[in-house]
Amino acid sequence: MDRRRMTAIAVLVAAAGTAAAVTLPSFAGENPTTRRTEPAAADGVAPEVLDALSRDLSLTRDQAARRLKAERWASGTVAKLRGELGAHYGGSWLGADGTTLNVAVADPAQAARVTAAGAVPKRVDRGVAELDAVKSRLDAAGDEATPDVAGWYVDVATNSVVVVAQPGAEAAGRRFAEAGGVPADAVRVRTADEAPRPLFDVRGGDAYFINNAGRCSVGFSVVGGFVTAGHCGRPGDRTAGANRVAQGTFAASSFPGDDWAVVEVNGQWTPQGVVNDFNGGTVPVNGSTEAPVGASVCRSGSTTGTRCGVIQARNATVNYPEGTVTGLTRTNVCAEPGDSGGAWLSGDQAQGVTSGGSGDCTRGGVTFFQPVNEILQRNNLTLVTANGRPSAPPAGGGATAPPAGGGATAPPASTAPATPPAGDATDCTGQESRTGRIAAGRAQVQPDGRFFRVPGGAQEACVSAPEGTRVALELQRFTGTAFRTVARADSADGPARLTADTPAGAYRYRVVGLAGAGEYTLAFSAR
Fold first, then answer.
1. What's the CA gap between 351 and 346, in Å, rounded?
2. 281 exposed, middle or buried (CB, 10 Å; 0-12, 13-18, 19+)?
3. Is the per-residue pLDDT at 511 higher than 70?
């Protein structure tokens, strides 16, 4: 084998900011060379945009096109009036019809100028610059906002800054505004059942960055994180998602010899049992049954998207310049730098993570993947699936042959408690109780997706689940910007129980599914 040509699809050459601009087929095998490409609409609007507007705003395509035309006119008019009105400009907004442009003015003498431009003048007391200054003062006091304050924004239509509070928490919204030292008549408190949070999903194939430098691809979600290629990072290396938000840490890695790694993610990221198909959707992962040689297989990676081919051989050894890696699977699928670690699927069954190969997706090539079942077994991991049922490798590992049953198998005994928890709700008692349904890889916030306040002291809680369902219980405290875990327990040997001495503040419980699926009961008290 020519070691100069057979290389790991190295993370180092996929530096931050580099990406391939390619048209990619879907998992269904759509051929990009024969895909129908619709011409843009006559006014330059892409058909996909018109279709989306029609769907989401309940418009016809003609109505959507007319609305976009009006919005372009409004944008140009607002830019002109903003410059002409200066400090008297109070903001602008389109009416519900999407065509009427309203422009607020703090000086009545400027109304005629607005009318002459084709807009409707609205008399207000404050210019938009004054409103922005009020909001900036609230921004500076952001650490004083409690979790029942969802956010704040400038509302030019009411000429005020709106503070959004949870129902029943209007007083908290007003206290926050007072803490910001802003004029009371410039702020309006609005209630809404909103609890904004970052919605970051871990999906197979998505890009992630290592130590803010190199780029690799997510393999498959597991409970608590994801698996990927070992040559992408070493234990302790930090990762960030494609959005550059802090994501997690490499917990384990093996390369050469093998080519696998495990990344544990933080609380802002939720592992999902899906793979990005790079065609606007996702493909479900419902197990890890090994496909035979000759079976079709598709790879998903952050450089070249989704590519498909067939499995040519199993238990292959590759002599990379960094060292020999054994037990890989050989395919005729192409890949390029940055695709490393990405997901391989046969149907809805996870197969492995991209290791390396030769060639590229212009000329074609050969690519090898590290079988996922070995990664799961070696690290005692549970694969997160789309159907909510835990999946783990067959007991034998099966390097060269499909599993005897030909179907999904139960997780090995090591992933479930040897003695099942009693699972009776009476095992857990407290001042408050909640019930819910949980599955491996999922998490729920209690009570009722909200939080509670305590003056300080001991907190006790427990959660029970039925046989075959294993959960973790986390107590989290609001620190001014986010909830942080301060105590944790799991149900390995019965109900998960925790006790913690905590200072006064806002707290919540987080129930995390580790294995299986079923109903749970949470009980908690503060003393």
1. 7
2. exposed
3. yes
User: Tokens representing 409?
Assistant: 């198998």
| List of residues 6+ apart from 495 with CB closer than 8 A | 421, 422, 427, 428, 462, 463, 464, 465
Compute the distance between CA of residue 204 and CA of residue 216 in angstroms, rounded to an integer. 11
The predicted-structure confidence for 226-244, as pLDDT tens digits, reads as follows 999 999 999 999 999 999 9
Exactly one of 160, 340, 355, 391 is catalytic; name it: 340
CA distance 207 to 188: 41
What number of other Cβ atoms are within 10 A of residue 153's Cβ?
13
Instruction: Work out whether strand 101-105 and strand 269-276 pair parallel, antiparallel, or are unpaired.
Output: unpaired
Measured in whole angstroms, the distance separating CA 459 from the mean position of its chain's CA atoms is: 31
Nearest 5 degrees, angle CA 396-CA 402-CA 408? Answer: 80
By CB atoms closer than 10 A (0-12, 13-18, 19+), residue 407 is exposed
Which parts of 108-266 are beta strand (E)? 120-123, 149-155, 160-165, 187-191, 200-204, 207-210, 214-217, 220-222, 225-228, 238-241, 246-254, 260-265
In this prediction, what percent of the chain has a pLDDT beyond 70? 80
Residue-by-residue DSSP string for 378-446 = HHT--B--TTS--B---TT--SSS--TTSS--PPPGGGS-SS-----GGG---SEEEEEEEETT-EEEE
Catalytic (active site) residue 88:
no
The mean-pLDDT minimum among 281-285, 344-348, 360-364, 385-389 falls in 385-389
Q: How many CA atoms lie within 13 A of 345 on its CB side?
A: 28
Average pLDDT, the chain: 79
The residues, any chain, with a CB within 8 Å of residue 490's CB and separated by 6 or more, are 470, 471, 472, 473, 496, 514
Which helix (H) or strand (E) segment holds residue 294: the answer is: none
**Catalytic entry in 26, 231, 288, 391:** 231
pLDDT at 481: 56
* The one catalytic residue among 259, 277, 339, 490: 259
Q: Is 369 helix (H, G, I), strand (E, B) or coil?
A: strand
Q: Among candidates 158, 204, 196, 215, which has minimal Cα distance to 20? A: 215
Instruction: Output the six-digit token pair for 240.
Output: 């960030």
Instruction: Render pLDDT for 322-376 as a digit per residue (tens, 0 to 9).
Output: 888 888 888 889 999 999 999 998 888 899 999 998 888 988 888 999 999 999 9
DSSP assignment letter at 292: P
Cα torsion at 399, 405, 408, 414 (round to 10°)?
A: -70
> Is the pTM above the cut of 0.70?
no
